[in-house]
Amino acid sequence: MMRRFKASKYKNAAPKLKKHEPWVRDLVVGSYNCSGSFIKASAAFVAFNVQATGSQLGVVSLDAEGVAGSTLPILNTHSDLVTDFEFSPFEDGLLATGSADSTVKIWSFNNNNINDLSLLNPELVMSSKHRRVETVCFSPTAEYLLSFSAHNTIQFWDILYGKELLYDTDLHGDTIMSMSWSKAGSLLATCAKDKQVRIVDPRANVVTASAVGHENGKDSRVVWLGDSSFILTSGFDSSRMRQLFVWDTRSFEKPIKSLSFGSSTGILMPLHDPDTNMIFLAARGDSSIGYYEFAESDDFLTEGYRYNGDQTKGACLLPKRALKVMDTEVNRILQLTANSVVPIPFHVPRKSYIDFHHDLYPDTCSTNTTGSASVWMDGFTGTVSKMSLNPSANGGNLRVFKETLSVRKAKEEQRISKVIELPESEKYKKAVPEPRPRKKSISSGSSSSDEVAEAPPTGKFFPVPKPRVSSSTASSVLRTPSSFISSRMTADFTMRNSVPKDVDSGLYTVPTVEVETCNTETRNGSSDEFSLTNDNESEVLNNNNDQDQQSLTESNDNDQGSLKDPVSLNGNEVDHNTEDNKSALQLSTSDRRKLFENRAMTTPETCNLPATDGNGESFENRKPRMSVAERMKMFQQNSANSTGGSVPGEEDNNSSQANNSHPLTTNTHPKITSMSSEDSSSGVDEHGDLSGKEREPCPAPIAKPERKFTPPKQEPAPIVRKPESTSQPTSLTKPPTSNKRIDTVFGQVSKYRNYKAAALHKKMHLENLRNISTTCPGESELIQANPDRVAVPLNTPGGKVAIFELGTPGRQPDGVIPALVHGSKVMDFMWDPFDNSRLAVGDDSGKLWLWTIPDGGLKEQTNESDFTMAAHAEKIYFVRFHPLAQDVLATGSYDMMIRIWDLDARDEIVLIRCFDQIQMFCFAWSPCGQYFSTAAKDGKLRVYDPRADTEPIAIGQGPPGVRGGRVCWVLDGKYLIVAGFDRSSERQLHMYNASDLSKVATVSLDVSPAILVPFYDEDSSVLFLSGRGDSTIFAYDVIEGPPYLLPLSPHRCSGAHQGIAFLKKNACEVQNVEFAKAYRLTEVVIEPWSFTVPRVKSEYFQDDLFPPTRVLWEPTMTSAAWANGSNVCAKKISLKPSYMRSLGEVTGHRSEPPSSENGVKATNGKVSTPAPLPAAVIAASGAIGSALISNGAKKQQEKLEQQIKNILPLNLKLEQDDMEGVDEEEWDE
Fold this sequence. Notes:
The chain is 14% helix and 29% strand. By secondary structure, it is of the alpha+beta class.
């Protein structure tokens, strides 16, 4: 009875809400069927499920204010629902996520990459053996120990080393719904669907206690109440009444306390604070959150203030390290609602808020622990240290960020390797406190053998590696870092300088490593090149062993870690007879590094000179290295000099003049020289990097002696030139030597690497869109556009497709949106490529609709189409027009058939049965229109020639994932690119040879459930990729040769998009260097986007970016001609306007034929090639860089200027000439 009147420090704790908008707003949170709480927090970040699928997590920093859903950082975690996730208790940026796709992933992020989460890759992926993951839980005491449950199994992993430690399969009878660790980290409490509550000892693989829990096994939760022996469970009884049980693990037959609440479908989620024993009860669908205080007494649970607000989707507690302790905030709940995240702080009212209240904040767990996953398996649980929340004691910043797991793993392995090398007597030496060694006397008479050597300046002892001498050699008890580094450094250099047996020793020449002074050591060879013999090598090793043994045994002669007769930093000898030099024998690591550099880089003739870089240039006077841009410019000039057609006798003079004119000459940079094609091919390795003789020495933690590599003389490798494409011949052949050299030395360089993507002005947007459908099948693109209008599906009954005119942008009027009504759900649709007013639609009833939009656009909703036909027996997968033939359309359906239609005759041309494909993901016509390809759920990629055979002409292995994909043809139909998934739901790009479907390249992007939709621009060979729900547009430059896919800079949009539709080339504004144009669909607006390449001389037509393009907006043949086997290629035209001059005409590299009066020059599939310019003009333009204009170009320029003068008469008369001024004679007055 006395418990009722006992005062509690937290009895008056009450929620305190702010009156402004929620912290995170405008979210889209769905209803998820799993056992998680949907929101978790660390001391730095908050993560929560977003979107209807729940496969993505929104991550927000606690410092952010007023975060909106459009600017929310999104982490693309899994391909299916994220069932549970949790932050590590030992660092604030380590997150573990479990999903219904049977995987658990580890993510690491910080404040630097929080805005680039869409590009983040997981550090570790763990499999739950093809079972849905239900719970994820970190150990409270053992770092890197992660446990997660899938069905009735529990797995324990060491995430540092990525290995499975335990796998319990026979302890539970049904699906595990909740887990909770004891505070000591040795036991685990679980609740399962078999209505049992268990206490599990995972290392012994036994159930120490079990009891019958709640009567209804639909859902339940369990939490261990701090360091006590009590646990708390929540669940339902047989009548769906919510219950709360308190269990004593010492007497586990039945609960010692039970509470009943009202009937509801939402499970109670208990949130427990072990420091204050405050328990919060939040339930899904409830608008109130209860507060209880736990105490080990008869009542156990005492109710406090209740919070009332919005309906709860999920809730979590903020770690104590993130609380505002000076405001007496004892806890903070983060509530996830249907569209926001609301912080609910609980404060204890106090009279004064100036001082820190120690009674409210006991010491809490810190992020430091003595346990880890590896030692936990050996029975050592570990202890977590305590920390104070007083800002004056901890400094105020309690957030902890650590390195990535891979970096920590490497450091841990290095530390363990050092411990393993220790002698048995030294491994546990640190456990015994050692006396502080007394300083050694400087006098020559102090040679007593019982004196202890001088300790390092820091006063710390270091672990000693196993000495590289025989076991009989005496070793010292103490060993300083200097002696360890000296012995290891010398032996390391000896090992590095050894020559392999299978390589000619004459190829390698290195300087001899000295161990004596410069005056006593001799070198073999000349001053430019030194040879290393086996005798010298053994002598160095013996000297090192002698010095190491001497430093270990004779502490009275030299200080530990010093070299025998060391040389000072200026190259002079050190006199051992003075007292000052005896105390200076203790050299630091940096001094020894400089000492070795001086010895390795100097010759006997220049022993007392400053160190040089091996080319006569001192390190102090050496100029900074050239930038990549300067080196590329130098190579371009040298390439032009070597191939520009100069006189043989003048070639050397020209190259020398070019070098002398450059501010960085060959003398200051001996690695940069004018190379011919033979030199360049021999000096560059197969990876495009410079060879050893052309690399500048890079500083290392321990300096290496410079190796001089003399390659054997060999015949120059023949230059293999790619055959020119016959479909798109170039107008001017560039010198292959120059291109080969630059691409090999600097890597593949794309002209579009600096492309810019930006939305056009807001006045060009289509706004006030309503009821846009986001639930169309994955085979649909959700938006189709042409230069006149755009079509998007609506999420309304009747299967409507809205049509918006691009000629009337701005805010769309309220009311009914003009749309096409189909009566059933729309599956896919596409504009006719040759008629901007014709639209084909396929619905889920198997019907094919053909519509013609009247001039001026739709004014109202209509259901009167041109014609409708029953194309398939089941719903349609895709609708695709032929790229060249008019009135040819292909459709695919769930009946596993592909039909090709003649829309003019309204008859079927080809029927292909695909019963072995399970489900067709995509369909793509080849550029020539003769073939098409499909990707299916059976993991196969197929190519068909529909007019020749109904069976595929090629079958290959496609992406291993089964979530969907897209296929497109690239490089004139020679290759196929498939965007799909791997088995761990990672999005990938696969490139195949179209002839035999052999894979040539694979690129991994990120993890996301959205299917990447590719668009390939033929002229620029740039591949754009975007996914539904993504905010990033990826881009790759596709080349015909390794690495095939050159990544360009991805562009991140302001918000998520539902789809992107690209226009054809005739819609681009070439005068603005726009090489692609698209329309981006969001939930409320359609934005036009422009993709441009920055150029300095943008007033000229960039003929290198805009080659003759294929006319894909005009048909080349009729449907009947195509059905009869005709193949007519598209003609090519120039996009150059008549009023613009091409850049090639100005620079002397004309690659474009002159345009006609209307700005377009068309030919029958071919482009006339002008005569190439003289080689002297090309060489002069490349070497000097000046824009030389040919005589014809000069005449055209003069003619243009004369025409401008005729149109615009020039008036050279000034306005002051008509004014009356002062006469000249009046100035004298």
